[in-house]
Design brief:
The protein is of the alpha/beta class. The chain is built from 8 helices and 11 strands. Belongs to the type-I 3-dehydroquinase family.
Amino acid sequence: MNTVTIDQVTIGEGQPKIIVPLLDRTETDLLSSAEHIQQLDCDIVEWRIDFFQEVEKPEIVAELSHKIKKALNKPLLITFRTYKEGGELPLSEEKYFEIYETLIKQGCLDLIDLELFMPDKLVAQTITAAHEKDIKVILCNHDFDKTPSKQEILSRLQQMQLKGADICKIAVMPRNSEDVLTLLEATREMYENYADRPLITMSMGTLGMISRISGQVFGSAATFGSAGTASAPGQISVSELRKLLNTLQV
């Protein structure tokens, strides 16, 4: 299993890494939150740019990424979560890739989040451009309605790997406890039989909370914790999450 090292944090070894979302809408609030998060016991910060009120101005986003990275002094993941996968803002595919192209060329970031079900050619071009700048890529998929079958989860994770993702991520919504077990079993099977790079998997909501703390057992290399406002249902506060990870450490 290959690991991914960004800014002295290695994903894929030891405890699952804690990622904290940054969700503010203005530059002032973002920088204030970054200073607060910098003091928390987390490993990576995800700037969810779909919340940022000036996200449709790519040069402003890229310029602000330098300020946020400096304030955090931690690895920075930048994500535009599309509306169809639970994000804040409907946006054309053309604009989505324009923002990412500008960020890769002009921004300051360690990781970028790219959705699996975007056009293959544009996904491939974005991955190549990111890698040329030594930016790692998370390919991801989110299903806020249901939990697909185990075989479908495995298929999506394997597609991400084949497309050249550095990290493969999937998040699904359970309707019952069996759905949670489906996600965990798919994670274990992918990790043990197919994966050659880190995985991030989670079952969302209260039902799926166990999946956010059991990564080291089943094969998920990172988990998301809240510093205040959660970016997805079922997120646990950073301080509580660290305690639970330490308690369950293998």
